[in-house]
Design brief:
alpha/beta; seven-stranded mixed β-sheet; binds adenosine-5'-triphosphate; binds magnesium ion
């Protein structure tokens, strides 16, 4: 699996290995600040950094970026280690800490001062900000910028000694107050903080800033590829400055690490900033960092998401260079896909209604028999079964009986027969109603129907059940999305106002089949027709089971406990093929269409109306942005197959949002451009948007796109080969290829062959 993966970061690594840039070494790191629990965004970074280490047979360092003593805590340090291991990665058992390098960082800072590359500045924070200037105006030098080196050195030592209060002065790099990159305008390297550090205690009262500590930590460890998120793009110049002027990598015998930025993971309906997650915990909006509604790894673990599902999401989303917001449906898809293959099927009833099978004999053991029920349907193809006891009195789901069934109702109702999952078919006899509510339903069983269809009787559906005498009670916690809006941080007001009211519903008195009495906390199950559940790892006890709903069975019905009855798989799926071990993005697209009618309609239109192949139509209708792009371009006059070809062959397909508009795409496919020139224009238009004609002109490629220029080349070629022209006109039309080749060659490969061909045909 690992070797299939490829992305721009792995391409860089491959190149570096080829050129021997780091002497053939690959070493990555994951550098969390221990100021909160890890979330799903961190999981993406972990999968990338540790995944690369696995792929290249090297190591990924876990390094705590513990340079800010105020917000950090050992609780976080421990949770982070636990979460990384749970995700399936190893940091070799020993975590590293930026704080272990404090002494060396300090010495290197003295070296910078001695070299005239850093100075102690006594401006206040506000003054420093004011002196820094703006994007359009250069900054002004601090009055302390040119103080004697010895003064800076003495003051820096005094800062370390503890003799100065917080804020008295800072150490700054001496770079360029007029630099276009604001980060380079004499950035802070050290500040005074009289604070207790969770590891170094009170040994230090000055702490290095991230932009100084990070490159130095990387270089000290011999990191080769320092992968971070896009917000740090502007910091790269400073990162390189620190490496260059301290020469720290060389001192350790390493090549300098290279910072590479990639797009962070954002999910809709989710907040990911640790500060906001901390607010949710501190203000009691959730029950803790590991609340199953939280996007933390601890929360998702408790919710019942598996590490495989989270890793599958990281893979599905890929590594991109442009930020985007990922549909949370993708995460839910990965979770369900994993559970479908791994969660044994059992029966449980959330809202019980008594069902009496009157034809089973009366008495405690009435109707007593035990069915051997397989844990998995044939299409999953896994072994295992458990005994399921049957008796005269059962619990069924309240929703599975209706005195007056609505249209399309596939369950039990007066006059109907349904199958009891794994058991007999039963026919309605009577319902006991008290105070307007059905309190008991009475049915008769059809004796010949075990594993066989009844003769001449229509079966309305299959329902699940639990024997009342054998059932065990459980508390069931149903979770909805924590936030009610797709962009909780962008909406008006405080983000907590966008919390879903009642995102936790607790059901007490649910009834489970007895086999679950011995289920382990943390084990995951499918309650057939109801959803996927996990025994809560914290609150579930033998005899007092607590289930968390991990997910509904399908995407469509988020808030409903009970789903429509599936066909009894026993006969129908007997021939089904075993599912391949891993589902593909193709299945995600199919599921997206199943939930989104607009996508389904576009899938159909692209084939029927616009003549695209099913394969292309499929690729183009996995998400709205892509479907709208192709349909919009066609509406703007683009040839469907040409527009489709560019979209599906796009190297960033599905990884980054489009900056171009459908009209840009339509204008692009109409351009007589081909080869590398066309690719260049497409890539720029896709990444930055804009009229492709202008992009071509700016890149000097417009000649190839200009009929006048190409026409001139055509005329020249015709004039240069009078004999071939005569032959062509005499009927040797095969010579057209020769002429096209000559013109394309004359255009240095830029002219589009189909357009050249058209022009030639006109003129020959
Ligand atoms: P937050 O903004 O949530 O507080 P952070 O970036 O401050 O997160 P760190 O502990 O510094 O948290 O992050 C450790 C690593 O995880 C960094 O390399 C960071 O780039 C990466 N990371 C953080 N959030 C994401 C995300 N949403 N997607 C991908 N990587 C992320
Ligand atoms: Mg950070």
């Amino acid at each position: 699996m690992a070797d299939e993966r490829s992305d721009f970061i792995r391409d860089i690594i491959e190149d570096d290995l080829r050129t021997g840039k780091h002497g053939g070494r690959v070493l990555t790191r994951f550098p969390p600040e221990p100021n909160g629990y890890l979330h799903i965004g961190h999981a993406k970074s972990i999968c990338l950094n540790f995944g690369i280490a696995q792929q290249y047979g090297t190591r990924c360092n876990l390094r705590f970026d513990d340079t800010n003593p105020v917000k950090e805590d050992t609780e976080y340090v421990e949770s982070i280690q636990r979460d990384i291991e749970w995700l399936g990665f190893s940091f070799g058992g020993t975590a590293l800490y930026a704080s272990d390098y404090f002494e060396e960082m300090y010495q290197l800072a003295e070296g910078l001062i001695a070299d005239g590359k850093a100075y102690v500045c006594e401006l206040t924070d506000e003054q420093i900000k004011e002196y820094r200037g703006t994007l359009s105006e250069p900054g002004r030098p601090s009055p302390w910028r040119d103080r004697p080196i010895e003064d800076s050195l003495a003051l820096f030592r005094k800062m370390r000694s503890g003799a100065l209060p917080d804020g008295a002065c800072v150490l700054r790099a001496k770079i360029d107050m007029a630099a276009a990159n604001m980060k380079m305008r004499d950035p802070l390297l050290y500040r005074i903080r009289h604070a207790h550090h969770h590891r170094t205690g009170d040994a230090w009262c000055i702490y290095p800033m991230y932009d100084y500590a990070h490159p130095l930590s990387d270089a000290i460890e011999g990191i080769t590829h320092s992968i971070c998120t896009l917000e740090f793009e502007n910091n790269r110049e400073l990162y390189d400055w620190a490496l260059e002027h301290t020469r720290v990598a060389e001192k350790h015998g390493f090549t300098r690490p290279q910072q590479i930025e990639f797009a962070r993971l954002n999910l809709d309906y989710t907040v990911m900033s640790k500060r906001k997650l901390l607010t949710l915990v501190k203000d009691g909006h959730v029950r803790g960092w590991d609340d199953p509604r939280m996007p933390t790894i601890a929360g998702m673990r408790r919710r019942g998401y598996s590490p495989e599902a989270i890793r599958a999401l990281a893979e599905l989303v890929g590594v991109a260079k442009t930020n985007s917001v990922v549909d949370i449906g993708k995460l839910e898809f990965c979770v369900r896909d994993d559970l479908n293959r791994t969660a044994p099927r059992v029966m449980g009833v959330l809202r019980p209604l008594k069902l009496v099978v009157t034809s089973y004999e009366a008495g405690a053991a009435g109707g007593a028999q035990t069915f051997d029920a397989p844990y998995f349907p044939p299409d999953v193809g896994k072994p295992g079964s458990r005994p399921v006891p049957m008796s005269r009195e059962l619990w069924i789901e309240r929703d599975d009986f209706a005195l007056e069934p609505p249209e399309g109702y596939q369950r039990l109702a007066p006059g109907r027969t349904v199958r009891l999952r794994h058991g007999h078919c039963v026919t309605f006899e009577d319902a006991v109603v008290e105070g307007g509510e059905v309190v008991e339903v009475r049915v008769r069983h059809l004796p010949e129907t075990l594993g066989a269809n009844p003769q001449g009787v229509k079966v309305s559906g299959v329902i699940h059940w639990v024997s009342a005498a054998h059932a065990i009670d459980a508390e069931v916690r149903l979770y909805d999305r924590l936030f009610a809006v797709p962009r909780p941080e962008d909406a008006e007001g405080d983000f907590v106002q966008n919390l879903t009211p009642g995102s936790l519903e607790v059901i007490r008195g649910a009834k489970l089949e007895p086999s679950l009495a011995t289920a382990a906390p943390g084990s995951r199950w499918q309650l057939e027709r109801v959803g996927y559940f996990v025994l809560d790892a914290v609150d579930s006890q033998p005899g007092a089971i607590v289930l968390n709903r991990i997910s509904t069975l399908r995407e469509a019905a988020p808030a409903r406990a009970v789903e429509a009855a599936p066909a009894e798989p026993r006969e129908k799926n007997a021939k089904a093929k075993t599912r391949p071990a891993k589902r593909s993005p193709a299945e995600y697209r199919a599921e997206a269409r199943a939930r989104d009618e607009a996508l389904a309609a576009a899938f159909d239109r692209l084939q029927r109306v616009h003549g695209l192949s099913e394969g292309d139509a499929d690729l183009l209708t996995g998400e709205r942005a892509v479907a709208e792009m192709i349909e919009g371009a066609i509406a703007a006059g683009a040839a469907p197959d040409a527009a489709a070809r560019w979209l599906v062959n796009d190297p960033s397909f599905g990884k980054a949002p489009y900056a171009m508009t459908p009209a840009n795409l339509a204008a692009f496919v109409a351009l007589p451009l081909a080869g590398p020139a066309a690719k260049e224009v497409f890539a720029k238009m896709r990444a930055e948007g804009g009229d492709p004609r202008q992009i071509a002109a700016a890149a000097g490629l417009d000649q190839a796109a200009d009929d006048g220029v190409v026409g001139k080349l055509v005329d020249d070629v015709i004039a240069a080969h009078p004999d071939k022209v005569a032959q062509y006109r005499g009927g040797k039309v095969g010579l057209l290829g020769f002429f096209v080749g000559q013109v394309v060659k004359a255009s240095a490969g830029k002219a589009s062959p189909p357009r050249v061909q058209e022009l030639l045909k006109e003129r020959l």
